[in-house]
């Protein structure tokens, strides 16, 4: 065996395998923690305590990353062994330290390996405020000929003021052709502004094959509204429709309020629309699953059992505590409602879930957790993203690192869905394309219509659309454009 091959096997156990010339053995990450090339001064707003940073070097920061990955990364034994000295920063080095393996379908095994500036992350995760226009874009085609459509617009936002509605198609941004243009930097800047006060001009088509118009949008700090319930009229007046778009802190209050309303109306079925929900806090998912299933079905049952790498079969290596499963959560956790309040519950034996390729992570955990305690999950839509994995975010020297640390399984021990949940696969259900010609919550909207039809007939035979009549009536493969942290399963210590 060559020296290079042996180094690949032990990954980062020795400095000699990371381009450090064999001078030292890499120590535990605590040895390098908070040794920063540019230490922070002052008070940490997240803790109200002084920053603990001390003077160090870029190499100290890189050694922290190296040791942290070797300690906690779920697939640490598959990590490549690049020369640490070939990277200018710890962030660049971190980006290279992930498995190159593929899933059975050929997609990357690790699709989410990322960092945030810690101050920005603390702001995002705690407040639910994000720079934008209040428009949720859906990217149907990523490469030319591209297609970018509008999934929905939040009321009272710049997008709403400009009368941009579901189904509108973006043709140009700041003069750059979105469909075939090569200036992707300008396109991305317009789609996802980095701060409030940025102005971008869009040419859009509101209706397929209709006239175009130009609108100028100025980004604002938008407080996301992640939960909405929409009453349905007879004969579906005993069916609740709940649109849930993000597992963020403010969602706790939204879910409590809306489920309380649904409970009071005495619904007998629920349509949970997760098609644009990429994930977020796992505890929010455990609360929602409890509110759907109720105390009888979930008493003493596992919502999500974390399985770490093979070094830690019995210990949670992040907390240092004995490895215990996460149960369904019956009381508020304190994200946006005072902690310890009893959650409302619907006690439903089944739930209809509307899904897309953007249904990811914590949203998939809701589906898997409910199925684990015998709730009949009926999936309407498209295959989900496939992410049974999660993170404990970790700050070092002003950067918060996210590397996959665990796989979650339900009460039955199932968590093998790296290629996503397929309608009528693990769950009953129907494959139905997204319908952008009808508002969300409209019983005529294709996925909701399919769920309502399945409720009465138990089949998918009525879930058909005439795509030739209107191209927007059958959009497949659309992925919501969201920051990466809103596409994951996040656990806080």
Structural description of this entry:
The chain is α+β, with helices and mostly antiparallel strands and 493 residues long. The chain folds into 3 domains: 3-101, no CATH class; 129-223, Pdz3 Domain (Roll), CATH 2.30.42; 227-466, 2-enoyl-CoA Hydratase, Chain A, domain 1, CATH 3.90.226. The chain has 11 helices and 28 strands. The strands form 8 sheets. Strands 7, 8, 9, 10, 11, 12 and 27 form a 7-stranded antiparallel beta sheet that branches. Helix 2 (58-72) runs parallel beside helix 3 (90-96), helix 7 (251-265) runs parallel beside helix 8 and helix 8 runs parallel beside helix 10 (362-372). The longest helix has 15 residues, at 58-72. Mean pLDDT is 89; it is low at 1-23 and 463-469.
Using the coordinates shown, work out and report the CATH topology of the largest domain.
Answer: 2-enoyl-CoA Hydratase, Chain A, domain 1
- Give the CATH class of the largest domain: Alpha Beta
Largest β sheet strand count, sense and barrel closure: 7 strands, antiparallel
Give the helix level as a range of percent: 10-25%
Structural class: alpha+beta
Count of helical stretches: 11
Question: Which residues form runs of ≥5 with pLDDT under 50?
Answer: 1-23, 463-469
- Total strand count, please? 28
CATH superfamily of the largest domain: 2-enoyl-CoA Hydratase, Chain A, domain 1
Summarize this, please?
With 493 residues, the protein is an alpha+beta fold. It folds into three domains: 3-101, no CATH class; 129-223, Pdz3 Domain (Roll); 227-466, 2-enoyl-CoA Hydratase, Chain A, domain 1 (Alpha-Beta Complex), CATH 3.90.226.10. The protein is 22% helix and 23% strand.
């Amino acid at each position: 065996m060559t020296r290079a091959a042996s180094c690949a096997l032990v990954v980062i156990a020795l400095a000699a395998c990371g381009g450090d010339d064999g001078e030292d053995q890499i120590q535990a990450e605590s040895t390098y923690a908070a040794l920063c090339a540019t230490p922070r001064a002052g008070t940490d707003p997240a803790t109200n305590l002084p920053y603990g940073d001390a003077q160090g070097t870029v190499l100290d920061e890189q050694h922290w990353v190296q040791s942290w990955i070797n300690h906690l990364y779920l697939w640490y034994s598959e990590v490549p062994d690049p020369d640490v000295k070939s990277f200018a920063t710890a962030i660049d080095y971190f980006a290279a330290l992930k498995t190159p393996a593929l899933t059975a379908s050929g997609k990357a095994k690790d699709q989410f390996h990322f960092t945030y500036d810690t101050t920005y992350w603390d702001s995002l995760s705690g407040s639910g405020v994000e720079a934008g226009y209040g428009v949720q874009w859906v990217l149907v085609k990523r490469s030319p000929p591209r297609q970018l459509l509008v999934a929905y617009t939040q009321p009272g936002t710049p997008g709403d003021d400009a009368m941009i509605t579901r189904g509108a198609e973006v043709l140009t941004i700041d003069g750059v052709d979105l469909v075939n243009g090569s200036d992707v930097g300008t396109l991305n800047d317009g789609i996802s502004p980095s701060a409030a006060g940025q102005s971008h001009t869009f040419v859009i088509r509101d209706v397929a094959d209709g006239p175009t118009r130009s609108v100028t949008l100025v980004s604002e700090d938008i407080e996301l509204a992640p939960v909405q319930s929409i009453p349905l009229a007879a004969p579906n007046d005993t069916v609740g429709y709940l649109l849930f778009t993000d597992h963020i802190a403010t969602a706790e209050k939204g879910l409590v309020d809306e489920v309380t309303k649904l409970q009071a109306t005495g619904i007998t079925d629920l349509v949970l629309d997760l098609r644009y929900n990429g994930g977020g806090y796992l505890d929010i998912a455990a609360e929602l699953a409890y509110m759907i299933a109720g105390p009888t079905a979930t008493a003493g049952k596992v919502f999500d059992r974390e399985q770490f790498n093979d070094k830690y079969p019995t210990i949670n290596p992040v907390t240092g505590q004995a490895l215990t499963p996460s149960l369904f959560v019956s009381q508020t956790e304190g994200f946006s409602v005072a902690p310890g309040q009893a959650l409302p519950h619907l006690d439903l034996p089944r739930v209809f879930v509307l899904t897309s390729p953007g249904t990811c992570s914590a949203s998939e955990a809701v589906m898997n957790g409910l199925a684990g305690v015998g709730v009949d999950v009926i999936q309407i839509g498209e295959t989900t993203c496939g992410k049974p994995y999660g993170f404990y975010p970790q700050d070092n020297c002003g950067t918060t690192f996210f590397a996959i640390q665990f796989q979650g399984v339900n009460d039955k021990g199932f968590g093998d869905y790296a290629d996503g949940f397929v309608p009528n696969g693990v769950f009953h259900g129907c494959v139905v394309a997204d319908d952008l010609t009808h508002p969300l919550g409209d019983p005529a909207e294709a996925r909701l219509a399919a769920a309502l039809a399945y409720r009465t007939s138990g089949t998918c035979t009525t879930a058909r659309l005439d795509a030739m009549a209107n191209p927007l009536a059958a959009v497949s493969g659309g992925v919501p454009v969201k920051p990466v942290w809103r596409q994951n399963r996040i656990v806080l210590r």
